[in-house]
Structure formats: structure tokens, C-alpha cells
Amino acid sequence: MANGWSIIIGLVVIVAMSTAAWFFSPKGENQVLWRSSLILTFVSCYLMWAITFLAQLHPLIEPRRSDLRKEFIHH
Fold first, then answer.
1. Where does the chain cross the membrane (predicted)?
2. For the ranges 1-5, 17-21, 33-37, 49-53, which has the lowest average pLDDT?
């Protein structure tokens, strides 16, 4: 299920993938471009996932049902 550990596990996976990209990027004149592109891609995808995940895990606005009659709504 969804919990706070998912963020940390995802971060560990991204760090491992970024480390692999650093060491296994093709050698040559474009090595820096490969490294930068892969690591930026991993980090960007992780940030997008983490923000979306956390927004759903702890929403700022509580959902309300609109199909209830007024006498059943407790304010």
C-alpha cells in the first residue's frame, strides 16, 4: 500500500540508476552529454512522481460529497 517508505525506496532506486548512468555511459566525446541527460531524466521523472504521489497521500483539500441532503451534512 501507499506509505511514506515509497518515497525513500524510489529515491534509492533513482540514486542507483544515476550511479549506473555515471559509470556505464558510453565513452567518447559525448560522455558528459549522456551522463547529464540520463541523470536529469531520472531526477525529473522522480520529482514528478514524488510530487504527484505526495499530493495524493496528503491532499490539501478534503473531498466532499455533493449528493447528500443538507440535513445529513455535519458542519
1. 7-25, 37-61
2. 1-5
CA separation for the pair 18, 59 (Å, rounded)? 30
Q: What are the grid coordinates assigned to 73, written together? A: 451534512
Residue 52 — very low, low, confident or very high, per pLDDT cuts 50/70/90? very high
Q: What is the torsional sign of CA 36, 45, 2, 74? A: positive
The answer for 28, left when phi > 0, alpha when psi is -120 to 50, beta otherwise, is left
Q: Are 25 and 17 in contact (CB under 8 A)?
A: no
- Quickly count: other Cβ atoms within 10 Å of residue 32's Cβ: 9
In angstroms, rounded to a whole number, what is the distance separating the alpha carbons of residues 8 and 61? 25
* pLDDT tens per residue, range 25-50: 999 999 999 999 999 999 999 999 99
Closest CA to 42 of 74, 14, 13: 14
